[in-house]
Amino acid sequence: MGVKKIIVTSCKGGVGKSTVAANLALQLALAGHKTLLVDCDFGIRSLDLILGVEDRVVFDIRDVALRGVEFSRAVIHDRRSPLLDFCAAPAGESEAIEPALFRTTINRAAEEQGYEYILLDTPGDEGDTFMMAASAAESALIISTMQPTSIRAAERTGTAVAEVGIFSQRLIINCFDFASKPPPGQASVLDIIDKTYLQLIGIIPYDSRLPELQLKGGLIDELPGTNTATAFANIAQRLAGKNVPLFTSFRGINKKRVMKYILSTRPV
After folding, report:
1. Cα separation of 167 and 152, whole Å?
2. Helices 227-239 and 17-30 meet at what angle, rounded to 10?
3. CB atoms near residue 76 (< 10 Å)
4. What does the DSSP assignment read for the chain?
5. Distance CA 57, CA 63 (A)
6. What letters, b where the CB count within 10 A reaches 16 and e where it falls short, cover 227-263?
7. Cβ contacts of 47 within 8 Å, gap of 6 or more
8. Which domains does the chain have, with CATH numbers?
């Protein structure tokens, strides 16, 4: 099986791209897949903070591509799994790497290290670093929340991704609130799928403890047995080609009510 190179993206900030990328990469690694996570949000980088490795970053992906630093010196091995590696974005340098050079760098790392998955976390726009990251990918995970602006951004992102030749696209709905009744006028999940023209690969429940964990470099493995952890694990299995129904192993939700909301084209 060849390496799967995936951008985790939205042209809107604040939808949780980096959170999804970090936790999904961890779940892939915990499932036995050698995985590389690359921060492509140049100048702002946040994945080193989310992973809790900011003090370990010496070299970054720009150093590898442009300055001849060996990839093995820039990669950080995550403490949570021997199969999870991370390469940081440059801090304070926002200029993108030329796409062909970036693609060559990623392909060389994949070949040398034997990765099964490479997740490329993009910035919240359609600028040069988005184009750079997309040049190395063959598929896309597009992140949306239930907010109208986020849904519109997901639709635009799908178009932008297709314009650069990536037609394998999947939708992840992040921060879904299973506990509360949706407000009047809020789109259903089926509405979002219809508006974005994207195939759904997973719904991630909101858990207020996850942002708190990130403040200290913690990830979803510290919330075992929760529906949020289960959602990430299910998505990882689907990426690996397994047929996993939407709410497999979820606990404490009224599946009938939730499915009514998901399938209804009218707000419940």
Report:
1. 18
2. 70
3. 18
4. -PPEEEEEE-SSTTS-HHHHHHHHHHHHHHTT--EEEEE--TBT--HHHHHT-GGG----HHHHHHS---HHHH-EE-TT-TTEEEEPPPBS--PPPPHHHHHHHHHHHHHHHT-SEEEEEPPSSSSHHHHHHHHT-SEEEEEE-SSHHHHHHHHHHHHHHHHTT--EEEEEEEEE-SSSPPPTTPPPHHHHHHHHT-EEEEEEE--THHHHHHTTT--GGGSTTSHHHHHHHHHHHHHTT----TTTT--S--HHHHHHHHH-SS--
5. 12
6. bbbbbbbbbbbbbbeeebebbeebeeeeeeebeebbe
7. 18, 21, 22, 37, 39, 41, 86, 88, 89, 121
8. 4-263 (3.40.50.300)
Tokens of 223: 């919330």
Using one digit for the tens of pLDDT, what is the confidence trace for 210-256? 999 998 999 999 999 999 999 999 999 999 999 999 889 999 887 77
pLDDT tens-place string over residues 116-142: 999 999 998 889 999 999 999 999 999
Q: Residues 113, 65, 16, CA angle at the centre, nearest 5°?
A: 75
Torsion sign, CA atoms 136, 17, 169, 35? positive
- Candidates 214, 254, 253, 213; CA nearest to 230 is 253
- pTM above threshold 0.90: yes
Contact of 151 with 195, CB cutoff 8 Å: yes
Contact in structure between 7 and 134 (CB atoms under 8 Å):
yes
Given a contact cutoff of 8 angstroms between Cβ atoms, the answer to whether 265 and 188 are in contact is yes
